[in-house]
Design brief:
Number of strands: 14
Strand content: 5-15%
CATH architecture of the largest domain: 3-Layer(aba) Sandwich
CATH topology of the largest domain: Rossmann fold
Strand order of the largest sheet: 5-4-3-10-11
Structural class: alpha/beta
Helix content: 40-55%
Bound molecules: 5'-O-(N-(L-cysteinyl)-sulfamoyl)adenosine, zinc ion
Radius of gyration: 22 Å
Shape: globular
Largest sheet: 5 strands, parallel
Length: 413
């Protein structure tokens, strides 16, 4: 699928280091090689029925910063993102609004692309829809059936056996106990009560055609449509390759989605799915997680339409650590506007060259330490207070402006 256009990224003097990030599977610093030259990044993309709220934006901006830090360290990044352009919630919304599901998906993906451009998010190298991956998904599900890792119910629906022996074993991504798994599975798109399943946790791989629902040729599987987790396992395998350096998404995807993706991927290829898992905290609004199903959305496109500067939106997102959960308030927007104006005024002034070098080192140091962007924004506030003193130069200011652009994705000029 068409991606979106890339922001211009200035060169910054010197070179950064490879970041250490927190892996939610290891529950500690990620096990990524120190000499990493090439990174494979897969980030779970949108289900296009109501894009792009600030929670989505927080997730994609966090991985955008990771990508910028890797680039600064000379790491070559292959970045893949999917689009869940066929799934129950999309069909339900299309039904409820009387819009064709394809039109709904196309319009929301278009909106998402323009939101990502406004926020200066580097596009993925491969932006791949579930629908365009159906032949590969059908092959994968057929392989899992042939290997005994899947089974077909009387309905024709195909399920993955979570009891399949794989290494690393099922459960090693999320480390949850069975009761927690069952609870989350039921909340997040799973169907523990479907009769005939071997294990309530077994996830759907292929849903047989139902009257009035879109369906595709599945060869031996019969007509139907793909389940959710197999989509990401197959797109990641075909466009990034295993093991992924980082599998990413919001923390709502830890279980079942990333656990199941990892299980499918390993059952298919014998390989470890990902070396590290990074999960972004949940953004909420008015006391609850921001989500399409709750309807408490603050949309990037609406803010931009109202004349808000996308760089102020980006500043709000970066003023929270990517792993923390936080609540959006209108006050944050006012604060970010003021902050940005302050930095922009500083960008027209002069900076002491030694202070600029030190600030650049601080920016890089905070980024490699698990992407500590809030600390950097505080440093920028201090910098903005100190500009214009005797001995400062425009070149030193340009060093900061370029670093903020290249590493944080915020343009100050
Ligand atoms: N299509 C699937 C992933 S394969 C999906 O979860 N789509 S989504 O549209 O619901 O979410 C898109 C991305 O935004 C996911 O990575 C999800 O974890 C993240 N996300 C969703 N809601 C929030 C939120 N409130 N805060 C932070 N991230 C969020
Ligand atoms: Zn996914």
């Amino acid at each position: 699928m068409k991606s979106w256009s890339s922001p211009q990224i200035p060169d910054v003097a010197g070179k950064g280091k490879r970041p250490t990030v927190f892996c939610s599977s290891h529950r500690g610093p990620a096990d990524t090689p120190r000499k990493l030259k090439q990174a494979r990044l897969y980030v779970c993309g949108i289900t296009p029925y109501d894009a792009t709220h600030l929670g989505h934006a927080a997730t994609y901006v966090a991985f955008d910063v990771l990508q910028r830090v890797w680039r600064d360290a000379g790491v070559d990044v292959t970045y893949v993102q999917n689009i869940t352009d066929i799934d129950d919630p999309l069909l339900e919304r299309a039904d409820a609004t009387g819009v064709d599901w394809r039109e709904l998906a196309d319009s929301q993906v278009d909106l998402f692309r323009s939101d990502m451009e406004h926020l200066r998010v580097i596009p993925p190298d491969s932006y791949i829809g579930a629908v365009e991956s159906i032949p590969q998904i059908v092959d994968a599900v057929t392989t899992l059936l042939d290997r005994g890792a899947a089974y077909t119910l009387d309905s024709g629906d195909v399920y993955y056996r979570v009891s399949t022996r794989i290494e690393p074993p099922f459960g090693s991504t999320s480390h949850l106990d069975r009761a927690e798994m069952l609870g989350l599975f039921a909340q997040r798109g799973g169907d523990p009560d479907t009769p005939g399943k071997k294990d309530p946790l077994d996830p759907l791989l292929w849903r047989a055609e139902r009257a009035g629902e879109p369906a595709w040729d599945g060869g031996r599987l019969g007509r139907g449509r793909p389940g959710w987790h197999i989509e990401c396992a197959v797109i990641a395998r075909d466009h990034a390759g295993f093991p992924l350096t980082v599998q990413g998404g919001g923390s709502d995807l830890v279980f079942p989605h990333h656990e199941m993706c990892a299980a499918h991927a390993t059952a298919l290829t014998g390989e470890t799915f990902a070396k590290a898992y990074m999960h972004v905290g949940m953004v909420g609004y008015q006391g609850e997680k921001m989500s399409k199903s709750k309807g408490n959305l603050v949309l990037v496109s609406k803010l931009v339409e109202q004349g808000e500067d996308p760089m102020a939106i980006r500043a709000i997102l970066l003023s929270h650590h990517y792993r923390s959960d936080w609540m959006y308030t209108e006050g944050l927007l006012a604060e970010a506007r003021t902050r940005l104006a302050h930095w922009r005024r500083a960008a027209t002034s002069t900076t002491d060259p030694a202070a600029a070098e030190e600030l650049l080192q601080d920016i890089r140091g905070n980024l490699v330490d698990d992407l500590d962007t809030p600390a950097i924004l505080d440093d920028l506030d201090e910098w903005a207070e100190s500009v214009g003193e005797a001995g400062g130069t425009a070149e030193a200011t340009a060093l900061i402006v370029d670093a903020v652009d290249a590493l944080l994705g915020i343009t100050l000029r």
